[in-house]
User: Fold Adenosylmethionine-8-amino-7-oxononanoate aminotransferase from Rhodopirellula maiorica SM1.
Amino acid sequence: QFLSNPPLTLEKNSVSVPPESQNFHWHGFTQMADFQNIVIERAEGCWLTTTSGQRLFDGVASLWCNVHGHRNPKMDEAIRAQLDRVSHITTLGMSADITDQLAERLAEVTPGDLKHVFFSSDGSSAVEAALKMALQYWHLKNQTTPSSTSTAKTRYLALSSAYHGDTTGAVSLGGIKYFHQLFAPIVFTPVRGPLPCSYRLPDGIRDATACDYYAHEIESLLKQHHAELAAVVMEPLVQGAAGMITHPAGLLARIRELCDQYNVLMIVDEVATGFGRTGRMFACDHEGVTPDILCMGKGITAGYLPMAATIARPHVFEAFLGKSSERKQFYHGHTFGGNPLAAAAAVASLDLFRDTQLTETIDAKSQFLRECLAPIADHPHVGDVRGRGLMVGIELVADRNRKTPFDSDRLIGRNVCERATELGAWIRPLGDVIVLMPPLVASNEELRFLADTVTRAIEEVLADID
Ligand code: PLP
Assistant:
């Protein structure tokens, strides 16, 4: 009943050269030769309206970042009010009051004693800042205690299939074949950890022993490499872009202990999981973990304006303190880091989180969405329905018993998402994993619409598949 207009029709693979009107705007992760653009002119709540009047449910929260819905009056008002005060100044040597206020509010909502906020403009840049912060931290520490280690701590441990963004440092950490392999000649090589995937455990490993198994694998690497490692970098609980891979419970806390034991910093990338997405403000809260450095982006401004942040604990921050002549300052900074309009959006979003207690509603919504998806979970080509909170992945497989993937050239995931879009729910796949990441304010009625639409799309596309 949500659709007031006839559904969209996408002409699949019909264009070999994009129409000229589409050439100006080069879209990321998109084959421009067979690209059917959908142009949005309005958005409200969880719904997008195209220039031809069709309504689409925003099933991926505008790339995993929308929280309170589009055109939330409080968000709009806060940004407009800030526009009347100051829209942009540098944060190199000065700050806007709203940005300082935001830093304090972020320290309040992030885990433990995370306190010192370094602003940037997107998730990848928040990760870059964390990498450089960790490296400079060890450089400064080793200057003051030269005997502490003879090897420079200049490397990072990243998990298999990691995704931390598209800038060069983030790509170095990355482990997704199509996104990262091509760029190998221009990046650094991390120490590569395992992929702690609860769905495909190694032979002989069960749910109950999976955490110990992966912790042991990571410990072996730390034993071997700790002297050269500045940090372990990881997404907590769910590796989003890897295909919503869920880690065994307890692993995050075990890795925290191992980082302490082997004197390596822990950088947690909460760009996707932060701001209520998993049912806690930050995913680290599920396991009572405080990393040394935490990266956030996407949901920080509730998806309204570009902003990201890297927040550090006092022991990290304090290593950078000294006389100007000692040149210990963090050698990093972005033109638009801490932008006041974005900061106003972020403060307004935190006010909304507090006033609506949105995070506390996520477990129930997640449960409801899972119930709506229960029938499709039994489909012979649905291997797994997984995730945490409102971060859900449905993995489509050729053989459910053997967990065998489809041949990736068949583009099954893409076909399902295109059909769902025609039926009124805008979603994007990760290979053959169908991603559902609605805005956190989605009502049960809207979640039911999303689940029903995706169910129908999967059934139709996989009806006669061999
Ligand atoms: N880190 C994680 C875990 C992400 O999921 C993403 C984006 O999807 C990024 C970093 C990069 O963020 P951005 O696209 O804002 O640069």
User: Anything to note?
Assistant: Residues 80 and 341 are 8 Å apart (CA to CA). Residues 123-144 form the longest helix (22 residues). The pocket of pyridoxal-5'-phosphate is lined by residues 122-124, 127, 163-165, 235, 240-241, 269, 271-272, 297 (CB under 6 Å). The two ends are 33 Å apart (CA to CA).
